[in-house]
Write a structure and sequence with these properties.
Layout: H1 2-33, H2 52-103, H3 112-129, E1 148-150, E2 155-156, E3 167-168, H4 173-190, E4 209-217, E5 221-229, E6 235-243, E7 249-257, E8 263-269, H5 273-291, E9 294-301, H6 306-320, E10 325-330, H7 336-346, E11 353-356, E12 361-363, H8 365-373, E13 380-389, H9 392-395, H10 405-408, E14 416-418, E15 426-429, H11 430-436, H12 449-458, E16 463-474, H13 487-501, H14 504-511, H15 513-529
Parallel strand pairs: 8-9, 8-11, 9-10, 13-16
Antiparallel strand pairs: 1-2, 1-4, 2-3, 4-5, 5-6, 6-7, 11-15, 12-16, 13-14
């Protein structure tokens, strides 16, 4: 009983001691853990100081004020974050509503199947918005997104800058992996059973891949068109793939039979019989002997050197047993646009692929196939970017002799450039050329007519295929800019002339030739002295 009374009497004291101990620990914790500014470091008053109680009260009051301000600051930051989060949520909701209005796309994660279907619908809408099935109207010739071409080993690209080359192996891993993935996917698609034919299907491999083109529309995705060898000569398999910022989607799988597709090569000409002789050597080898599905139309202006040109045509006809040519003579001033327009309209046969060509062009049989594969009546026209040679006397000036023409036809930064400012070499079906209105016949002389035709196609619903090709070369020749040209034509002619001579580095070597020779001479003198 006495123990119980003693415990009861001791309990209030024990509670008081515990309260004091807790308060002391709380004060020490607040002093140790609360952040202090440079001017906020306060010292605890001495225990035996007469003002100890007042000091502790002041410290507690100041700490309480600091915590109150800190809490107010946190509340302000939280309010700002809530407001920003609400604004972002509203933006996201508006974007979702924008897409859901047309496609009913709402990614409801509670219903995975519906979310997957909506996502697939959105990706397919990207295909519809891109230039896959048809072209779109464009405002200028610079608005068209060009394609780049590739094979198993090389990529042929327009944007070279100072470090990249017009023809190179894909050095960047992402680009290399991208193209490998696309080729493998296309091969897999070709080898997938169609469920219709009972015959043993052919097994396609990457070695059947001929060439491909691709381009990226920044807000839609990447379009790939891949060509594979078909089951017979002149037959091909074409796979169209699209990457809408995600997995690649097969768009088309079709057989392309080009065995009966004729190309009418139209060449406007005035004088230049020696150049025409060189052109006919190339035409005979590539067009007649290797390709064999070709017609030649020569539109000749004036009478000077006309007999020489006709003689070259007749000799080729006899030696190669070639009868598919037309010679048209016009007694008027030379006009490239007029010559091509007359040659195109002169054709009376079935719809034919027209290849507008110049006498200083060299093409391969592979290019003629590219010309066929990238044109489609009512849908596609082909504007290849050819590789333009520099002046051989500058390029090979340090050699003992200039190599033969065939040895010069290599795609390197030192030997030439992609002529991406030229639109004169083009392939299209005659029906599309007639329907678009042909050339502007008011343009006389050199330059301008090709750009006007190119703009007509861009303003139409036809798809314009613009890509560098490895089998089309512009052979160097000295360019004469006549005084009769308009100021705009003369400026274009001089720009073209400057571009044709050599690369920046090679022209720089010519500019600083005297300085370089002086330096070498000084080195020789100093070496003799030592």
């Amino acid at each position: 009983m006495m123990l119980r009374r003693g415990f009861i009497l001791f309990l209030p004291r024990l509670v008081g001691l515990l309260v004091v101990a807790c308060c002391s620990m709380s004060i020490v914790y607040m002093l140790a853990c609360t952040p202090k500014g440079d001017n906020q470091q306060l010292a605890l008053p001495r225990v035996h100081s007469p003002t100890a109680k007042e000091g502790y009260e002041a410290i507690l009051q100041e700490r309480e004020e600091q915590h109150r301000n800190y809490i107010i600051s946190l509340k302000k930051q939280i309010a700002q974050l809530k407001a920003e989060l609400q604004g972002r949520t509203e933006q996201l909701r508006n974007m979702q509503n924008q897409y859901s209005d047309s496609l009913d796309i709402r990614l409801d994660h509670s219903k995975p199947e519906k979310a997957q279907a909506n996502l697939l619908a959105f990706l397919r809408s990207q295909v519809d918005k891109a230039e896959v099935h048809s072209g779109v109207k464009l405002s200028t010739e610079y608005a068209a997104v060009p394609f780049e071409s590739f094979t198993l080993q090389k990529v042929y690209q327009l944007e070279t800058g100072l470090t990249r080359h017009p023809e190179e192996k894909p050095v960047r891993k992402d680009k290399r992996d991208e193209l490998i993935e696309v080729i493998e996917l296309a091969v897999g698609s070709l080898n997938k059973p169609d469920g219709v034919s009972k015959a043993k299907p052919r097994v396609y491999t990457a070695s059947d891949f001929v060439e491909g083109i691709y381009r990226t529309e920044k807000n839609k995705g990447t379009l790939y068109e891949l060509t594979f060898k078909g089951d017979a000569k002149h037959q091909f398999k074409k796979i169209v793939l699209f990457r809408p910022f995600g997995p690649v989607m097969k768009v088309k799988n079709e057989n392309v039979n080009m065995a009966d597709t004729l190309i009418n090569v139209i060449v406007p000409l005035a004088k230049r019989a020696s150049k025409f002789q060189q052109f006919m050597q190339n035409f005979r080898e590539m067009g007649i002997q290797q390709d064999g599905r070709i017609h030649l139309t020569v539109v000749y202006f004036g009478k000077e050197q006309m007999n020489e040109v006709k003689s070259i045509l007749e000799n080729t006809s006899k030696s190669a047993n070639f009868k598919n040519f037309t010679f048209i003579q016009l007694n008027e001033e030379f006009s490239r646009g007029k010559g091509l327009d007359v040659g195109a309209r002169f054709w009376k046969g079935n719809n034919v692929v027209l290849f507008f060509c110049d006498v200083d062009i060299y093409f391969t049989a592979e290019f003629l196939n590219s010309c066929r594969l990238n044109t489609q009546p009512g849908k596609k026209v082909f504007y290849p970017v050819l590789f333009s040679q520099y002046n051989p006397s500058i390029i090979y000036g340090h050699h003992d002799s200039i190599p033969s023409l065939e040895q010069q036809l290599i795609i390197k930064k030192e030997t030439g450039f992609w002529r991406d400012f030229g639109f004169g070499m083009t392939c299209q079906y005659r029906s599309d050329f007639i329907n678009i209105g042909g050339f502007d016949l008011d343009i006389k002389g050199w330059g301008g007519e090709d750009v006007h035709l190119y703009r007509k196609y861009l303003h139409s619903n036809l798809m314009v295929i613009r890509t560098p090709v490895r089998g089309l070369f512009h052979l160097w020749h000295e360019k004469q800019c006549q005084d009769e040209l308009t100021p705009e034509q003369y400026k274009m002619c001089m720009q073209s002339k400057a571009m044709n001579e050599a690369s920046h580095g090679q022209l720089g070597m010519l500019v600083f030739k005297q300085e370089i020779e002086t330096h070498l001479h000084r080195q020789k003198l100093s070496s003799k002295k030592t």
